[in-house]
Amino acid sequence: MKAIRRFSVRPVLPEPLRPLSELARNLRWSWHPETRELFQSVDPEGWRAAGGDPLRLLGSVSADRLAALAEDRRFRRRLAAAADDLHDYVTGRRWYQDQPAGLPAAVAYFSPEFGITAALPQYSGGLGILAGDHLKSASDLGVPLIGVGLLYRHGYFRQSLSREGWQQEHYPLLDPNELPLSLLREPDGTPTRVTLALPGGRCLHAYVWQAQVGRVPLLLLDSDVEDNGSGEREVTDRLYGGGSEHRLLQEMLLGIGGVRAVRAYCRITGHPEPEVFHTNEGHAGFLGLERIRELAEQGADFDAALECVRAGAVFTTHTPVPAGIDRFEAALVARHFADGAELPGIDVERVLALGREDYPGGEPNLFNMAVMGLRLAQRANGVSTLHGKVSREMFAGLWPGFDPEEVPITSVTNGVHAPTWVAPEVFRLGARQIGAGRAEDALAVGGSQRWDTVADISDAAVWELRRTLREQLVEEVRERLRASWRERGAGTAELGWIDGVLDPDVLTIGFARRVPSYKRLTLMLRDRERLTELLLHPERPVQIVVAGKAHPADDSGKRLVQELVRFADDPRVRHRLVFLPDYGMAMAQKLYPGCDVWLNNPLRPLEACGTSGMKAALNGCLNLSVLDGWWDEWYEPDFGWAIPTADGAAMDDDRRDDLEAAALYDLLAQRVAPRFYDRAAGGLPGRWIEMVRRTLATLGPKVLAGRMVREYVERLYAPAAEAHRSLDAIAARELAAWKARVRAAWPAVAVDHVEAVSDGPLNGTAELGSTVSLRVSVTLGELDPSDVEVQAVAGRVDSADRLSQAAAFPLKATGAVGLDGRRLYEGPLTLDRTGPFGYTVRILPAHRLLADGAELGLVAMPSSEGAGEAAGVLMR
Predict the structure, then answer these.
(1) pLDDT digits over 587-611, tens only?
(2) What's its top-level EC category (predicted)?
């Protein structure tokens, strides 16, 4: 029989146990060991059956057990201590509150997915886990963040395997009433709703659910509202599901509805209004349009409103390839922003212009969400140093005339929330060394560049910890593998071999991530015989644990999964190589600590950051990776290995994969495995243990999300808040008018002539330390000298006279405008480096409210006729 209606029946806790409800509903428990241990002690078996979810646990505990706990004085003392600790955590001063004045009163952080805990499955991969770690670290630091996302009733998907190893997807229905969520309600108790207008007079309504992530509220919009039509109710059905219009509606709800949800939350709770809006990837880009609409309702014109919105906006791109960006047909977007639909009063052509690919190589009939995100934000960043470089090259068309290195996209390298990802055993070892309080601060707040106290931990203690974690992973793998084979149709009698899968004394390698082709799940299979030799080596065997999900629509990714599964099913190697289906946070928290080596072999430079190796490193796992993402930035031979890349321009895909796979096998056979099995007296691998120490001491403080969030605050949020405050209505109108005037006048701006006068001979060579006086004649047309900056740009030159490692410095105007309308600028150029050296001059727009000279994408350079001196000056 099937129920005709479903309810969530919540337990009635005895009065002395009421604080358990608050502890269960604040997701700080997901990274606070003492709170988890408290819940586990309520009912150890029930805790295991509930998958470590406090709400599910409390819903299953018997009334007799609750009554007994209410009378247990020791338990009540522990409960009171945990409740007091949470209260102090949520209300006390933290890092942010001790910073100088001027930081934003609040920051709104928008993301399409958030990976907070397995008990709230609203994530698919790295983007969501990063967003969850961002919220948790903001909470630890006291940053007044408001998270904004969507509530997907089916989450992402659960993965299983068929008997043949083909990925199968399952979409269990999630009931918000059974999740650690509460409805945002108006003062009269009715649920808060946000509404979007759709074409044809339809509406899209959404409830706002709230999760509490420590100090940080997370607002999740849910379109499963009775007043919606069937199509509208399904807008938030699945993460990254549906067709183009479905995705567009999701992103409109996230961006436009998300701003409206933030306004409602601040109105109802009294939370300060955000001064900064942070868009985590382009999916939420429409939030800028909603903010423009708000200002237009207050009387601002579009251009002035755009300047206000840009000033307080931060845009983070995670995508190193154009194919990873959401793009919609312009006609589809126009239909949803035309008269009678969303954003009334805003010209749809102005909307389309923000996302149009109107640059060389672009497709003007497409609306690009990342392009809109960049045009609506004065500050933008990639997520590693290398990814920042890749992003500047990818989006250089938006800033014509500038070299890619000058494109105004910086980088903040991702980090991971250590209290979430560090195994309790690792934390306890550190706490014994420096005390629990200092260990918590070191993991959550960071600040110290090195964790030198790791050096004081004995070799025996480090090795005992590593073996304990490996042993726990072996048990976890066997349990999950047995469950997977049962799902694949195997009977108990067939599964005796699983008891011999993996060995807690064998070198263990982990590889787990999403399965797009560029991550190369099956690179390890290029030479199967050689891999088999490594797995079965008589003295130095290797074992590998693999996990990962392919997107439901990606059949090529599913074929990669099947290829790996079929190899892992081979009786010769199945005790040494396993594939675990349904990769998620719960599995990851066991996998990272239990591995000795974390493998990552993407196509360089297509890994924007790749934080899984960071989580592994925090547990003393060594990285073996292609120099991509964060590893390109921080790799040192002292604590890991770099897989050489074969990325020459003439290299075909198969040849490149063969070469890089061979390099991987060589590293494993000749360097990684020998070091692991090289045992001194007492059976300890001293050199391996030293690499573990160096990983923890040197990488540990760098990979923290606490470091990452502090960088966002200091380098992006604080300047954005200052810019936001500087742009009142009058200043915004003036800036918009100035930009319009400069753009209109720019075609007449020119560098007419450049002269160089040296204090020595200047016939192609010059002495180090000598000075060249530059005299530059320019035409500014209708612009004033105050509207521009004339710069000299000097640096090394290559054989084609292209500048690199260049530095720019301003030249000064001399005297009034000449009879011919030209102006003269002068300045000294000091020849401060040896070797091929050159310079050029240029004119940029200049205004006190610009964040960067390249912001407008306008520059005037010398023509070949007006350049005067040759570019290259040979130093000696």
Answers:
(1) 999 999 999 999 999 999 999 999 9
(2) transferase
pLDDT at 875 over 50: no
Tokens for 867?
A: 């350049």
Paired residues of 382 in beta bridges: 411
CA distance 278 to 712: 10
pLDDT of 871 above 50: no
Rounded to 10 degrees, what is the CA torsion of 204, 205, 210, 216?
50
Q: Cα 713 to the chain's mean position, in Å?
A: 15
What rounded mean pLDDT belongs to the chain?
92
Q: Which of 731, 843, 848 is nearest to 783 (CA)?
A: 843
**E strand segments, 816-865:** 822-830, 836-845
Buried/exposed code over 686-699 (b: 16+ C-beta within 10 A; e: otherwise): eebbbbbbbbbbbb
Helix segments in 239-368, DSSP class H: 244-252, 258-269, 287-297, 302-311, 330-336, 348-355
Cα separation, 441 vs 140, in Å, equals 9
> Residue 522 half-sphere exposure, CB side, CA atoms within 13 Å?
21
User: Minimum mean pLDDT among 406-410, 712-716, 773-777: which range?
Assistant: 773-777
Quick one: tokens of 374?
A: 């960049």
DSSP 12-25: ---GGGTHHHHHHH
**Which pairing describes strands 158-161 and 182-183: parallel, antiparallel, or unpaired?**
unpaired
Mean pLDDT of 261-284: 97
Report the distance separating Cα 76 and Cα 19, nearest Å.
10
CB under 8 A, 24+ apart: contacts of 67-73: 67/14, 69/14, 69/17, 69/42, 70/14, 70/15, 70/16, 70/17
With a CB cutoff of 8 Å and minimum separation 6, the contacts of 106 are: 144, 145, 146, 266, 271, 272, 273, 274, 275, 276
State what percent of residues in the chain have pLDDT above 90.
81
Q: The whole model's pTM is what?
A: 0.95
Give residue-wise pLDDT tens across range 307-342: 999 999 999 999 888 878 999 999 999 999 988 889
Rounded Cα distance between 305 and 83, Å, is 45
| In the chain, % of residues over pLDDT 70 | 96
Angle between helix 424-434 and 459-487 (nearest 10): 160
In angstroms, the Cα distances linking 251 to 60, 150, 519, 556, 566 are 37, 9, 26, 26, 38
CA distances from 488 to 483, 485, 513 (A): 9, 5, 22
Whole-Å CA distances, 447 to 39, 381, 416, 611, 694: 32, 22, 14, 19, 17
pLDDT band, very low/low/confident/very high, at 762 (cuts 50, 70, 90): low
Query: Pairing relation of β-strands 812-814 and 822-830?
Result: antiparallel
Q: Within 13 A of 354's CA, how many CA atoms are on the CB side?
A: 29
Rounded CA separation 439/427 (Å): 7
The dihedral sign for the CA sequence 577, 578, 583, 585: negative
3-state secondary structure of 658: helix
Question: Strand, helix or coil at 403?
Answer: coil
DSSP string, 19-66: HHHHHHHBGGGGG-HHHHHHHHHH-HHHHHHTTT-HHHHHTTS-HHHH
